[in-house]
Amino acid sequence: MEIWPGQAYPLGATFDGSGTNFALFSEVADRVELCLVDPDGTETRLELTEVDAFVWHCYLPAVQPGQRYGYRVHGPWDPAAGLRCNPHKLLLDPYAKATAREIDWDQALFSYDFGDPEDSDSRNDDDSAPHMTYGVVINPFFDWEGDRRLDYPYNETVIYEAHVKGLTQLHPDVPEELRGTYAGVAHPVITEHLAKLGVTAIELMPVHQFIQDSTLLDKGLRNYWGYNTLGFFAPHADYSSMAGDEDRLGQQVQEFKAMVKELHVAGIEVILDVVYNHTAEGNHLGPTLSFRGIDNAAYYRLVDDDKRYYMDYTGTGNSLNVRHPHSLQLLMDSLRYWVTEMHVDGFRFDLASTLAREFYDVDRLSTFFELVQQDPVVSQVKLIAEPWDIGPGGYQVGGFPPQWTEWNGKYRDTVRDFWRGEPSLGELASRIAGSSDLYEHSGRRPVASINFVTAHDGFTMRDLASYDEKHNDANGEDNNDGESHNRSWNHGVEGPTDDPEILAARARTQRNLIATLLLSQGVPMILHGDELGRTQQGNNNTYAQDNELSWVHWDDADLPLVEFTAAVSRLRREHPTFRRKRFFAGTAVRVPAGGDGDRLNDIVWLHLDGRPMEDDDWTASDSGAGAQALGMYLNGHGIAGVGDRGQQVVDDHFLLYLNADGETTVTLPSDEYADAWDVVIDTGGSADEDGTFAAGETFTIPTRSMVVLREHQEPEAEPDLSVAASVAQAQGR
């Protein structure tokens, strides 16, 4: 085979239309062999003789897309020193753009002999190639037809967290051959549903190539969530409708690109949940599949005084070495690739605190954050941190740099606590007003808070209102896995029931949670299926449940809840009052042109008798009467900076009443706020027929419910009464 020198950059296998350039970094290697694999498993081994800055490379003019390949790295074997080269193990290219075949967990995949003590330095030299995943050369060319990122502002963003397979596997209108695939996500029935909900971004759970855990396979289970990455550039092959087609190897890349293009056409951004904190190779007893055999100490964080072992801030056995330039290069190259070549719109970083641990502590000034800040590509997309890991000081909600947004775990906990009856009005007020206590000090704005009540990790929203305890027996861990403190409430019966009163209360709680989420300041994130009333039967850790327990059951959809969610989302979309760009100042707002001077503050917290809350009231309310109900006035004239040119934008005034207690009477504030108010949301479904109340008038808020009122306008001047009408219809009023 003709071999040309090739180039040291870019890393990976790069087809240029004629042939393919191969490049692999390894500082520790003595020799590197590129292995081209035929369909029958026959290898052609080519020794790479060109080395520049520890990058081994060649160009093969005969190699075309669809070619399987791997590497064998010759070098030192000394586990105690962190050196684990073993040329008997076929290794996946860290930069592989596509993969073929799953590993089978044979002994040959491990570089030590089973049964030896944990600290054994034994070496297993069985050939792993017959049991190994291959890299695949891809055709990078794709007709994007002018596609580009949508770049929605954060304050106009509604995120929908979803799983490629779980979202589509049971949808009756998705063709069977497309269910569970990228093509299925792009199907019109999915995009139309998302559009109805007002979703502007779908956040896909891990789609980087991941492997199945042997411990799960032994139990007859599979890794469903996908937080077990092996290939940071390759879309997961099993999510392709072409998976297993030997004539279409690598085509999962084209299918993923087609999905992104179609979602963009539908007005939906694509955000990827990425796992750069660790890899699937696990701890010192894990398999040798890629990074470990290529350059163990460069890619992994090792224990300083015994490099046989790995630092583990993630609970998975290892942590990526963000102190090494080539490990950081891998991370940044991957991010840029998914933006420039795959056209994604942003990333959610799993256990992001681990990426900030250059030394021991979490450091917001770490090299990783500096690289992101300076990168002209990555810095321009949506960056969302899961701001914690399991290491010391790992809980960093509010601690990430200004360019970042964060999953706000404090928002989740506070909203759950409030609606299950915990007295936390001061905390609740901070969270639904945008969490300025967490983000304002670092120069960030309300949109730094990604608000969520449920996510893939934990109860669904329906289960949050149906179970006091987790029910994870299906996971095979004696119900010891998963979070035990869920801040949930079963409303009197654990799990399924036919009691109409309990069912009505649970439905009302779900509406309360959805309305609170969508009308809070910040960026709302909905868990897939919550709007459909999806249940996981009390399982709050379905990481291994790749089955109907986790998949969305579209045939069992709670259609009134879908309509309610869509209507509240529309209210948010049509009124900038609910999606401010800046924090509330708590100061008087200038009336627009034609007004008569200063009026009310941009936000006023209210007692149920119509009086404004005073400073001392917050302390008293946490334990005294009224501790579980709160009023909130939003001044529609106080939305400075929402306009494209920073001009003042005028909206309607709104009143929100959140009542987590029994039925109670509310007295509306004086006509200084507005002369009259229209009910637009009543999660209890019992508002008066006309739904309009004069200033100072009283009305009843049902037990554990939320009421939203808008300043009254005559019907002929009201362009969007359909919002109120559709909310009422969804509630059966």
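Above is the first protein from milestone M3; the second protein from the same milestone is given next.
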Amino acid sequence: MSEQVALLKEKGNVALQEGKFDEAITFYTQAIELDSSNHVLYSNRSAAYAKSGKYLQALEDAEKTVSLKPDWGKGYSRKGSALAYLGRFDESVKAYEKGLQHDPKNEQLKNGLADVRAQKTASLSNPFNSPDIFMKLANDPRTQKFLSDPDYLKLLQELRTNPQSLGTRLQDTRVLTTLSVLLGMSADMEEPMETEPMNPPEPPKPKPEPKPEKKEEDSLPPEKRKALEEKKLGNDAYKKKNFEEALKHYNTAVELDSTEIVYLLNIAAVYFEQKEYEKCISQCENAIEVGRENRADFKLIAKALARIGHAYKKMENWKQAKIYYEKSMSEHRTPEIKTLLSDIDKIIREQERKAYIDPVKAEEEKELGNQKYKSGDYPGAIKHYSEAILRNPDEPKYYSNRAACYTKLTAFDLGLKDCEKIVELDPKFIKGWIRKGKILQAMQQQGKALTAYQKAVELDPQNSEALEGYRSCAVSASSNPEEVRKRAMADPEVQSILRDPAMRLILEQMQSDPRALQDHLKNPDIAAKLQKLLESGLIAIH
């Protein structure tokens, strides 16, 4: 049973890495049915559920993981992540904190805790942007009926994307009720609100003659107007790459209006262009602090966080860049930052992969794998061979050994995948071609198996294993009924081969002297034609 569980887990891991989340869930579920006390299986399935957007199921599996292995940090990380996706930020924080009690140095738990705290802050600044907003509204009788109204849904979307519009919407009783539900106020806490304007509307007056449009700046205090003028001057200098002049104007704008985040962000942009990345980061942090104090648009906060990410990216501090891109995404999601985050993830994974490479340890793992293989413990061998591959991913023999284990466990699809990797790394690795041929034969893919054995014979015409595989595969290919022969004779390529005088002589020679086959297979053109005839069933080799 343990072999079957290990194999299903491996298949689940492969599917998860390839983004086939439903497949991964199926494999992990089958493994759990065989071993319901394995905490790793629940943890992996929790990850698969989360990636497929099934957060409640992800939480259930995470809680099961923690109950089975209370001192394992990753279980708490899974639980914290699932709770955060569900918008249950306080519970998520507690899960991460409890995990850190068991594993204080766990970076995944530390980063998760920082991210969920940032998400919680973002949701508090705009309750309409809470991830679980629809769940809360659907579960409360006061707002449940509103969700069937398309106008109400449009109103919600406006408040989610533009929280500044809340002030103009407070006369709508639905908004006040929604706000009460989102802030956790019970029905008996609500007080009657004015639903009509305090002053009755005046009767309509004749429209006056249109006056020249008054600019918004004209209604601002003198200091703010002057600050805007300085910003414009700074922008002009920035476009001309006169950065010192731009800094002068932007700093003056800040002196005149210290509550405006935009001026601080512009200063940070100048530092970024000047490659003063530490100054850029410091300025962005100041901008975020000022922005939060003055309830700035969350998009500007996101912009500041993204710019910190850009600075860290330029400094090749990939992990810090990732943290700030994720924080930016928690404020406001954009395709550009999502793409950057994906790129950073790839760089971090590649760095971690390279840092993990150690050919000496790879050989040690291979030897441990060999011992497990000899004792018949194929899942155990796979574990060590997989570790050897991680330690030295460019060595084909480790994939070959693991493919042998997969073959023993009849996991031909995984074995074939390893064989493809072998011949990609080293096209002259003859054992890779032979192993590929055997797996394809077992999968009843005789034509492809012939091609694999053919490659092996080309590399070593004397290799008995390759020749035997080629012959046995050819016999299987030629044992089809007469109907196959009729279809073959209708093939123009087959007809052309049979009309070739040289090929007719070769076929006659092979009938009188079967050993001549080895000499003819050395010629790629002749070998290809013989293979075509074998596949068609017109000739057989015994």
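Note on the second protein: DSSP finds 30 helices and no strands in the chain.
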